Structures are given as structure tokens and as C-alpha cells.
Amino acid sequence: MKFATRAIHAGYERDPATHAVMPPVYQTSIFSYDRLGDEQPYSYSRSANPTRAALEANVAALEGMQYGLAFGSGMAAIDAVLRATLVAGDEVIALADCYGGAYRLLTRIYAPAGVTVTFLDLTTRPEQLEDAIGERTRLVWLESPTNPLLKLVDLPRVAAICRARGVITAIDNTFASPYLQNPRDSGIDIVMHSATKYLAGHSDVILGVVCTDNEQLAARLKLVQNSAGAVPGPQDCFLALRGIKTLALRMQRHCDNALAVAGFLATHPAIDKVIYPGLPTHPQHELASRQMRGFGGVVTIYLKDDSRAAAARVAERLQWFALGESLGGVESIVNHSATMSHGSMPAGVKQALGIREGMLRLSVGIEDVDDLLADLAQALA
Fold first, then answer.
1. Catalytic annotation, pick one of 99, 103, 179, 302
2. Residue positions of the PTM N6-(pyridoxal phosphate)lysine (predicted)?
């Protein structure tokens, strides 16, 4: 079954009683028993809910994996992965330029709890893992492309190194979505999504999903999901399922528009640098072409005037790019990463990574591209 068909049909078999094409919103907290001691798949919606189960099966199918688990946010999904794989005294190796929220969770929650957190640049030097993995290393946390610098990780190479040493690999696949990249094919053990972004795609839900093929990891994740209870409600799951039905169409338009925006900005006199994996000037363009089925909907730019005032001036003049924290919706969004998505990172860390005051992250939506180009032109004038 091809991707677009799976996106529409996977995870739900029509109710034989009603023949409903869409799964119902099971807006209930409890499911009754006929007899004391009966076993049944649904009893309490924190543990399981049919609408949530349909979403979990759908995303797992899109990633080509057996198990899917939904959480109340992307951060709750990351937290579940960490809880399921780490205890005090263990080490997690994380990508140096990971999402700011993941950085905050690792450094301010897990490090004080006794987990050793090591940050490495695995985008340009994946061989560092060979020497970095120690006796207590349990997990390697990845992003590809990264947020917001759009660097790539050679996933098969990193997965092979980790597998040889018995270390679990997990990736935040939000920026690529399953439409552009299935990390399982490269040997990655756990795939996580902030379904708030491209999966749901309409800026109307907060939701995370984790997928795996490993039965033991799935059982651990299920234990965390049920015990900690950071689960989404059925209405949010329904909205995410509805959004996923158009994922293939939306992602292709995101990619097409982003390539046009990147090409336009690459020659603009007010722009110092454009980062987009689809441009031949991107240092990992060849890896992106080999590892992904498209280049994504995010473009990162550096203004020649590298100041917060200049970034604010451009962002606030944009008409069709909303100034906001998120990405991946049908509408275009501009983000000042230094103060927004990565605001929790220390200034020195941001500076070392290249997250500067004059940098803006553009989540290119599916509007008419001519309108987007005209909007950027007037904002940069």
C-alpha cells in the first residue's frame, strides 16, 4: 500500500454496525464491564481509548513500525522515551543542536536526577560516537534535519555504531514527517513526532507520538504512558487523524513552496545566508538527497543585519507569516529561534551553535507561493 493510501486508511476498520468512514470520537472516560473479572481492551481512557488507538496504529503504519503510542504533547513523548530507557547513573548522548525544549528537559530535569547528559555534534562528526559511548550509555537522541539549523545526521552510520555497542537510538522525526523519511529503514529503534506539527498540520492540537518495532521498548513506553498519564484526549486524536489524511498532499506543497522561498531568498541583498537542504549550496545536500524523499518545509535565514531589532522588524512586517512558536501548519510561520524555540538555551550554547539574533526560521505553509514571495519581498525591503 502506497503512502497516501496508508495515510487515509491505516489504523481503522469501518464499524460494521454504522459503516462510519471516520472513527468516532469516543468522548468517554470509562467503558463498562458486563461481569466482574472480565478482560476487555478498553476500561479507562487513560489506559486506552479507541480513537487514540486508531491514531496510534495509523502513525505506526506510516513509519512502517509495529507499535505506536500517543502522548499529550511532543515534549511528553520525548519524556516518555527518556523514562522508558534511562535510570539514574545512565548516560544519554544527544545531538548538540537539538530542539530547545529537549535541551531544557535533558539539562534541567534529567541531569539533576542523576542522568549523565552528553551533547555531541553528530551531524558533521558521527565517528565521535565510537569513543563517546561508554559502559553506562543507554540512549542516543537524534534529530534530522535539526531544529533550526537544518543539519542532517547520517542515520544508517549512527544506527550501525549504536547497534554494535547495544545502545538504543531514538530520533525526533518531526521536521521530515513520515512522508519524507522513515528512520526505521536506517536502523533507528524509536521514532518520535510532535504531531502538533506536520502530522496534524492545522495548528489546532497539541500531541506527540512514539513508534517502535521493539516489543520490550513498546511495553516500557506503554507502562510510562499508562502510569504517568500524559495522554491526549479523543478529540485531539480525531483532529490529528483527520489532518493526516492530507499529509501527502500538504507535505509536497510545503516542500515545493519552501524550495521556491529558499531560491528567492538566496539571491536577496538583505540576506546573508539561506539554509535549506534542497539547495545545492547546503553542505549536506547529497546526504539529504540520499536519505530523504524531499527536503522539507522549513527554511532558515540569516539577515545581513545580525541584530534582534532587524529580525523583529522583518518578522513583524510579514503579513502571511505569523510570528509564532510552532511550525508545520498549513499557514506560514516565522520564528525567532534565539528568543522563542531555543530561548531556554544558555546564550553561550546558542552562540556556539550559530543560533544568532539575526536568524529567522521560516515554516513555509501551503499558501500560493507567489503571495509568500511577495510578502517576503516587502518585509525585507
1. 99
2. 197
